[in-house]
From TrEMBL:
Family annotation (SUPFAM superfamilies): NAD(P)-binding Rossmann-fold domains
One Pfam family hit: Epimerase
InterPro entries reported for this sequence: Epimerase_deHydtase (IPR001509), NAD(P)-bd_dom_sf (IPR036291)
Record's protein name: NAD-dependent epimerase/dehydratase
Length: 320
């Protein structure tokens, strides 16, 4: 089997490459990545064996990288700019890196005769739903960030390409995915701040933001499980939430990090950037996905949100 993973040198993508090599015994994995947030170090052990080939390319630009998709059995499209915060000040970045890049990948698939896709979408496509936990069939989808809008636009492109050209696709709407190799997000931010000043922690928002977190090992296991068991039998496009049963507040995350770093008294300084206490404009304050559809396929998360946070902190501190 030959797989292509866009963004495969990044956080989730590199863990996915690990699973493709170790669990699915891939004959070849082609990673296409611009290395803006990823690193060859994440996959170098596979490159050295010859199983994985890295192509450095910008997917928002048409180019030679498109030829690498020809003959692939499955394309995992995981390349994107993941910084939700940046979309409020530089929206063009998410349009280019997320929407245009997805269109180019779909075109490369069409021209290369590839008809199977797994796409990394996001819980942010729901915006602020009135139903929590939120199921896959919730409507209307009303993202409140450019990032969420870019993911939803990409989903629509995939739906249309599937209808016109017969693609089979899994759209996976991930909760907050955390773990080793992550280089952005609230946990990384808090650890870096506390290393600089162990007695004071600035927290964006009022600390009551409550969200679901999933360890990357669980996220990738769910991805491989669905790919193996559902992609071939999918008629057109199928959508799955990939998340956890529970959620934690930002303040609870700070408490776990302070405990794991062995710090004493830390003063929390809350910085409200919106009147209702969000971390930034476009930040979804409450997020919990309904994962019953995923669980009906025989998969369940091993780590709770709280346990995933604690394990991630230990991994990032080199204690795991």
């Amino acid at each position: 089997m030959r797989y292509v993973v866009t963004g495969g040198a990044g956080f989730i993508g590199s863990h996915l490459v690990d699973y493709l090599v170790y669990r699915l015994k891939a004959d070849e994995v082609v990673v296409v990545d611009n290395l803006s947030s990823g690193s060859p170090r994440n996959i170098e052990k596979h490159i050295d064996t010859g199983v994985v080939r890295l192509i450095k390319a910008d997917l928002s630009k048409r180019g030679e990288w498109e030829k690498s998709l020809k003959g692939a059995d499955i394309v995992f499209h995981y390349a994107a700019n993941p910084e939700v915060r940046i979309s409020s000040v530089e929206p063009g970045i998410h349009f280019e890196n997320n929407v245009v890049a997805t269109f180019n990948v779909l075109e490369a698939m069409r021209l290369g005769g590839v008809d199977k896709l797994v796409f990394a979408s996001s819980s942010t496509v729901y915006g602020e739903p009135s139903v929590i936990p939120t199921p896959e069939d919730y409507h209307p989808l009303k993202p409140i960030s450019i990032y969420g809008a870019s993911k939803l636009a990409s989903e629509v492109l995939i739906q249309v390409y599937s209808q016109l050209y017969g693609f089979k696709a899994l759209i996976l709407r991930y909760a907050n995915i955390i773990g080793a190799r992550s280089n952005h997000g609230v946990i990384v931010d808090f650890i870096n701040k506390l290393k600089t000043n162990p007695s004071r922690l600035e927290i964006l928002g009022d600390g009551t933001q409550r969200k679901s977190y999933l360890h990357v090992s669980d996220a990738v296991e769910a991805t491989i499980h669905l790919t193996v068991n559902k992609l071939d039998s999918t008629h057109g496009v199928d959508v799955y939430n990939v998340g956890n049963h529970d959620w934690v507040t930002v303040t609870e995350i700070a408490d776990i990090i302070v405990e794991e770093m062995g710090l004493g008294r830390v003063d929390y300084v809350f910085k409200k950037t919106t009147p209702d206490g969000r971390g930034w404009p476009g930040d979804v304050k409450l997020m919990l996905l309904d994962i019953r559809k995923l669980e009906s396929t025989g998969w369940k998360p091993r780590l709770s949100s709280r346990d995933a946070v604690r394990r991630t902190v230990r991994e990032l501190l080199g204690k795991a």
